[in-house]
Amino acid sequence: MSGISRRKFLKSTVVAGGSAAAAMSSTKKAFAMKEFEGYPESMGVLVDLTRCIGCRTCEAACNKEHGLPEPALPFDDFSVFDQVFHEGKQKRRTTEKAYTVVNRYETKDQGAPVYRKLQCFHCSEPACLTSCFVNAYTKTKEGAVIYNADVCVGCRMCMVACPFSMPAYTYDSALHPQIIKCNFCYDSRLKNGKPPACVEACPQDALTFGHRKTLVKTAHERIKANPKKYVDHVYGETEVGGTSWMYLSSVPFDQVDFNTTLQHHPILDNTKSFLGIVPMVLGIWPAMFLGFHLLAKGGKGEKKDKESKNRVEVQGE
Amino acid sequence: MKHFIKEGFKPVDSLNDPTDGHQWSIMQKLLLGLSPKEYFQQLRRNPFNWFLFMIFAVGLPVIVYRYINGLGSVMHGGFDYPWGLFLGFGLFCMVPLSASGFLLGTTVELFGHKGFKPILNLALLNGLLGYFFAVVFLLVDLGCPWRLYYPMVVAWGTAAVLFLVGWHVATYLTVQVLEVSEAFFEWINWPTAKNYIHKGTIGLTVAGIILSTLHQGALGTLLTYAPGKVHPLWYSAEFMWIFFLCSAVFAGLCMVIAVSTIVKKTMAWRCGDEFLDNLDTITIGLAKGASMALVTYFVIKLIGLIHDNQWSYLATGWGKLYMAEIFLGVILPVTLFSFGIRRKSVGLIRFTAFLTIGGLLMNRLNTVLITFNWNLYQEWPPLLETIISVTIFFLFVTVYRFILYRLPILYSWKTEPAAELVSVPVPDLADPSPAQAKQQLVSEMSS
Question: N or C: which end of chain A has fewer CB within 10 A?
Fold first, then answer.
């Protein structure tokens, strides 16, 4: 897999240590490699916002599937859609008690409200994974981004790096704090080829489970078949290098709280130019600065050398 | 302490007690040559100790409280703001302010500017303690601090920039411990160890430059993981690392000026003549270096602005903050430094050094906390988080002062009575012979 090779490349650039030569050769190899385009068999989910009616069945199914704590308000209480936080600047978000939430948006382009489900996007090249210094995250070949609390140190770099700010953290736990986020029902379902609980529970067929590649085609077909209904964009197809969960919408995506300013290549790319100079600094700095040191000695090195040798001999006697 | 000095007391600064020629015991060295009663007296008399006592009386219980009740009990626990003051100040500000060690190590040991020698030990200690306390801040901030060694031993996330930061801070801390240990071995009177470490000076210094270049830059690169969250004016995918590295240069130099100013004002009794006599000249020299770095920083920040075409943001409220930061932290310091250098006004230079440190704090806090999530909502560090940060900072000050009082950082250690010095050949430790340096070069290249 080219993805693994890329990780190997970065590994070599970071830990190259003393051997600059080895690092340089692997750098060369990696730059000749083509981009990682995600696992070919990766599964995904297409969320069609035009079909969602805000019934919150998916939230309830997720809560049950993962044995999460009972929420303050029951899942059939729709007053949660009116909840706003931080002086009205934020609607509900995923927390340590909810892997997924649905929010309602009154948009100016459309009379009826639009509902939007929110959960981990399961990126093809996740920023949480690539920014983690203990490899707590894994992108499985089925497409899920899963997390291993056993090695997590709790630096929360992944929360900083996630372009969708999805991971939550159990700040209140003193002994077992961990990241909480949607895991695509990997252990209980996805691993066995089954769709996640939320998809299965959706009564509106708003969530379509399938191979990511097929879903991209499906999404474009839906837009083509109904160009007036849909905005001509599949959110998640290229955002941050592509995500396993993708969205179709009838209103511009920024009106339903999607970040439309995201880059269209993986977040990892931003660090590459720096990681590329690491083996160079390791390789060049020692000789360069020792050279400066010898120069600073004023070119008297050889003479002094002999003198000091003599001195050592005298001292030795 | 000043009281005792007035009465003619001389703190321990040599191997042997000058009055009777006996070696000082470790206990006597720890008490600076005072009797326990006298030591306690001076401890009580100094109002600063009472100030520290009050801070710790409030802060230490809060730290214990954090470990019992979890991070959420002291931080706001926002999922959109995973990092607060502990990392925003403790890591992102302490590390650049501790760049002093590698900068003066390079100047003195590598480039051979012996004029800076009297301040070298202070710069090295400043670096060591700054990094050490950055790790202390980390221990408070990490969800599972007992797993701090995991990235070294258990799981290697080698593609991550933080992995590089972790490893480099750890190795650089070791390098700095070795560098400062020379003074420690001198103090406990173990010359063999001191000479052994001294042979490696050039190697350690070069290692210091490499590690510092990379991890100072890596701290900036960490933020390129969050392109939309860091405000565009403080963000640059390409230049983030060089911004952070360059600002660490003037920050580290200004920190040395600032600390030496405080030291001169508050513990002149501990400073050797070599330190006090040369300090003004050294300060002007450091200011020259800092101005160069500041000018360079201004130029590359401008290039960053042009490169990413971010002019339109300058008209916004964030733009005002950005311009205030550049004016107060870069343009004004450069102007004042150049006045100070030209008129040899050390007072002005010292003031400007504090101003520049303020500018750096502003830059790092703006990048990591204040403008972070600029299009979301603002989150301010709650009271308990601030209390812990202040407490750890003063813990840093306390340890700093404890070491400065004792180890030969500000003064030079006298090993032999002056009369014997002539008969016993003392190797010229200040200047490693080129043969040694060459040997070092060879071993460095082959390793």
Answer: C
Q: What is the DSSP string of B201-222?
A: HHHHHHHHHHHHHHHHHHHHHH
pLDDT tens profile B83-129: 999 999 999 999 999 999 999 999 998 998 889 999 999 999 999 99
The DSSP 8-state label assigned to residue A43 in this structure reads: E
This complex has an ipTM of 0.84
Which among A155, A172, A174 has the least Cβ separation from residue B142? Answer: A155
Mean residue pLDDT of chain A comes to 84
pLDDT at A197: 95
Chain A neighbors of B438, CB-CB under 8 A: 301, 305
The residue type found at B373 is: N
Residues of A in contact with B73 (CB under 8 A): 172
Q: Is residue B21 part of a domain?
A: no
Angle between helices B161-187 and A2-15 (to 10 degrees): 20
pLDDT tens-place string over residues A168-214: 999 999 999 999 999 999 999 999 999 999 999 999 999 999 999 99
**Domains of chain B: total:** 1
Q: pLDDT tens-digit profile of B386-410? A: 999 999 999 999 999 999 999 999 9
In chain B, residues with a C-beta closer than 8 Å to the C-beta of A165 are: 79-80, 229
Interface check for A280 against chain B (CB to CB < 8 A): the answer is no
**Could B154 and A290 be called an inter-chain contact, meaning their C-beta atoms sit closer than 8 Å?**
no
Distance CA A179, CA A148 (A): 9
CB distance A296–B111 less than 8 Å? yes
Backbone angles phi, psi at A93, to 5 degrees: -135, 170
**Residue A243 DSSP one-character state:** B
CATH number of A37-265: 3.30.70.20
Please answer yes or no on whether B225 and A278 come within 8 Å at the CB atom.
no
What kind and span of H or E run contains B259? helix B240-266
pLDDT above 90 coverage of chain B, percent: 63
Task: Report if residue B415 sits inside a domain.
Answer: no
Report chain B residues whose CB lies below 8 A from the CB of A127. Answer: 225
DSSP A90: B
Say whether pLDDT at A315 is over 50: no
Would you give the distance in Å from CA B50 to the centre of its chain? Answer: 25
Domain that holds residue B231: 46-405
Q: From the list A161, A170, A178, which residue is nearest B226 (CB)? A: A161
State the best of A160, A166, A257 to mutate against chain B, taking most chain B CBs within 10 Å: A160
d(CA B289, CA B334): 11
Q: Which chain A positions have a beta carbon within 8 Å of B144's beta carbon?
A: 152-154, 177
Judge whether B70 and A173 are in contact, CB under 8 Å: yes
User: Exposure of A91 by Cβ count < 10 A (0-12 exposed, 13-18 middle, 19+ buried)?
Assistant: buried
A83/A97 Cα distance (integer angstroms) = 16
A59 three-state secondary structure: helix
Interface test with B, best of A12, A13, A93, A131 (most B CBs within 10 A): A131
- What's the CATH number where B202 sits? 1.20.1630.10
Mutate to test the interface with A, among B225, B367, B442 (most CBs of A within 10 A): B225
CB contact under 8 A, B110 and A289: yes
B147 with A153: Cβ contact below 8 A: yes
Q: B155 and A262 in contact by Cβ < 8 A?
A: no
Q: Return residue ranges of chain A for CATH 3.30.70.20.
A: 37-265
Task: Count the alpha carbons within 13 Å of A313 in the hemisphere toward its beta carbon.
Answer: 6
Q: Which residues does chain B have within 8 Å of residue A119's beta carbon, measured at their own beta carbons? A: none
Nearest residue in B to A16, CA atom: B158
**In this predicted structure, what is the pLDDT of residue A35?**
62
Note whether residue B31 is domain-resident.
Answer: no
Reduced to 3 states, what is the DSSP secondary structure of residue B343?
coil
